[in-house]
Amino acid sequence: MKLYIQKLKQSQGEPVSFREHVDISDIAQLDNDIRRIEPVLVTGTAMIDGENINCDFQIQGTMILPCARTLVDVPYEFSIQAFESFTTSVYREGEDVHLVSGEVLDLTPFIEENVLLEIPLRVFADKDQLEANTVKQGKGWTLITEEEQSEKIDPRLEKLKALLDDKSNEKDSEG
Q1: How many Å apart are CA 140 and CA 92, to the nearest integer?
Q2: Looking at the record's lineage, which domain of life comes first (predicted)?
Q3: pTM of this prediction?
């Protein structure tokens, strides 16, 4: 997303609004959890004051991340409020102020950086997605839910139960 310095200067100190869909899908190739990201909507204003340029913008979009339990795709919607300061003067460049060289200010790297900082540590699929994508059986194993487990008697305890039933029947018949 490019902003032209000349257009900002022509605004004579008034904020210049922008609204654009920006394709940042190349960040999915980096070493992070993002599997896919659609173009994000960037809306905001840019204002120039002498050699200083301030951009206040919002980034909205959806990224696809892996579920922490099952690794299925989980859409994660985000909305990020960002503020970036730029300068055209080499003398004012600093940690929080970025130097603009030339006549074009490219916001794309700053949009990508803000989105990367927004990636959550983990996301979880909803219950329907989990049930639809959970493997229930494999070679030599079967998934048993807690409800099924509580209904099923452990085969090792069946003989003990039978023995206890026999002893209780003997006491009943004696009494």
Answers
A1: 67
A2: Bacteria
A3: 0.70
